[in-house]
Amino acid sequence: MHAYRTHSCAELRVTNVGETVRLSGWVHRKRDHGHLLFVDLRDHFGITQIVADTDSPAFKILDRLRVESVVTVEGAVVARSAETINANLGTGEIEVRAGPVTVQSEAAELPMPVATEADYPEEIRLKYRYLDLRREQVHTNIMLRSAVIASIRGRMIDQGFTEFQTPILTASSPEGARDYLVPSRVHPGKFYALPQAPQMFKQLIMVAGFDRYFQIAPCFRDEDARADRSPGEFYQLDFEMSFVTQDDVFAAIEPVLSGVFEEFADGKSVTPAGEYLRIPYKEALLKYGSDKPDLRNPLLISDVGEHFKGSGFGLFAGLVEKGAVVRAIPAPGTAEKSRKFFDDMNEWARGEGFAGLGYATRKGGEWGGPIAKNHGEEGMKRLADEMGLGPDDGIFFAAGKGEEAAKLAGAARTRVAEQLDLIEKGAFRFCWIVDFPMFEYNDDQKKVDFSHNPFSMPQGGMEALESKDPLDILAWQYDIVCNGVELSSGAIRNHRPDIMYKAFEIAGYTRQEVDTNFAGMINAFKFGAPPHGGSAPGIDRIVMLLADEPNIREVILFPMNQKAEDLMMNAPSEVYPNQIKELNIRIVEPS
User: Fold this and answer.
1) Is residue 160 left, alpha or beta, with left meaning phi > 0 and alpha meaning psi from -120 to 50?
2) Predicted local confidence at residue 174, as pLDDT
3) What does the alpha-carbon distance between residue 95 and residue 85 come to, in Å, rounded to a whole number?
4) How far apart are CA 303 and CA 325, in angstroms?
5) pLDDT tens across 91-135, in order?
6) Taking CA atoms, which of 23, 229, 244, 538 is between 20 and 30 Å from 82?
7) CA nearest 372: which of 323, 320, 307?
């Protein structure tokens, strides 16, 4: 018999009744019924109930142990009586009568419970993450993550991609987020950077002629935490393809994403490959108020500013005259809602930092509210007909400067759909956001700057760069979005040195700065580069969606807190003076 176990704690069934077995695991729960002690023994695979009576030596050992102690139990498998069968447990038809018990490790008093899914302070959970990982839901999430990565890897290989590993120590880049820097011992005063993404390396892999690359890539960015973004590090499905158009990239990755979601969606509906909506960036901001639209929400925003030109509702008329916009969000079936519903929405908008949210009510075709009263019956009817509204549908209005109004309208669209329970349940809805602007105007620096990715190919190539207003140039850039969560950005890359120099010139970079800051890439392109493109869906966000978790830390094995601290390993931490000295650096205390 094996020293520790003949079976896992999820393995035994009625067919094993009569066998003598050996199990090892953690004491999950204990229940003392006077003459009998019931112990749930847990391992990675599941739970088996152990029973010890008061006359057995096992009783005294198990009774004194704290939960989470590790034991090995030998005993006979017996069938449970019909009334004690646990249908929710795979091993629920049997139990093991405890014989010899060996204590492998005694647990001290726990700083947090394991045998419960109740909420517990995050600081404690992260400090004792190894205990938190023993809890069923977190344990399940991490196993889901592993299975998702394995599925992705297999699907990418089936699509003809080859897995490569790119460097972790690399050069700092002036573009993108803040780098994590690593001082060099052998090159005093110089630093490596941890890669924010394998962007340049994967493009160089295409230049090297490998055609289709992927990896489950670690990325490092010194950014603040959010619910859907882990501070410090994250993983992405990084891939790149040669001799491809935007359509080819979409056709390659859609079956991978849809396939993985279908595999792990637990019966939820998934947008099929080939049916992802393609929404231009400008249209997304107009109709959804966001470039990360949740397509489970059926509400669409309308631009109704033209309706208020010369309108009797002076506030909107004056704003439109000054170049502001008015966006309308439908509120279907709200005829029976009280005025409080609409006033609460207005208060919600103010609580979010906006000036307020206007509204018009409608019941049986009769309009109510000051906006409708001043705009007039005919004007409101024209507006509602253009929006496709029914006689019992109300409207919310967001007015102001374009960007601010779009942001409020997008937030209100989500809020209204949530309040009216309109968001489709049990579904994963994918879309592509396409046609991003290549450049934007930087108000702080008073100059034209890149808006998304400086290494993207401008639509129209060199001709567009030389003949069009930079702010009118679109790029072959795209984002993939699922249920309002951006999974990745991607692009068809700029593989031509002449076009790259020109694009960077428009953004204020000299040829020498491009040669210095992006030497590896620009030099490689001078020796023949194929047209290429790719993307990098985030692994953490994919798993977060599939696990239906609101926070990304719930699907990461050892996450940091919102301050980018590892409470378990006490990182970041001070280091010894001799380590600082041999790196030829000096610590400067903050003022």
Assistant:
1) left
2) 65
3) 10
4) 7
5) 999 999 999 999 999 999 999 999 998 889 999 999 999 999 999
6) 23
7) 307
Cβ atoms of 234 and 195 closer than 8 Å? no
Q: Which amino acid is at 44?
A: H
User: For residues 37 and 48, is the Cβ–Cβ distance under 8 A?
Assistant: no
Please enumerate in sequence order all residues whose Cβ is within 8 A of that of 233, keeping only pairs 6 or more positions apart, or say none. 218, 219, 220, 221
In DSSP notation, 455-483 reads TBPBTTHHHHHHHS-GGG-BBSEEEEEET
DSSP string, 215-231: EEEEEEE----BTTB-S
Q: State the chain's maximal CA–CA distance in angstroms.
A: 93
Q: Which two tokens stand for residue 477?
A: 């850039």
Rounded Cα distance, 404 and 400, in Å = 6
List residues bridging with 432 in a β-sheet. Answer: 278, 480
Query: What local confidence, expressed as pLDDT, does residue 175 receive?
Result: 60
CA dist., res. 139 & res. 104, Å (int) = 22
Give the residue carrying structure tokens 């807190």: 561
Per-residue pLDDT of 535-548, as tens digits, reads 999 999 999 999 99
d(CA 114, CA 129): 11
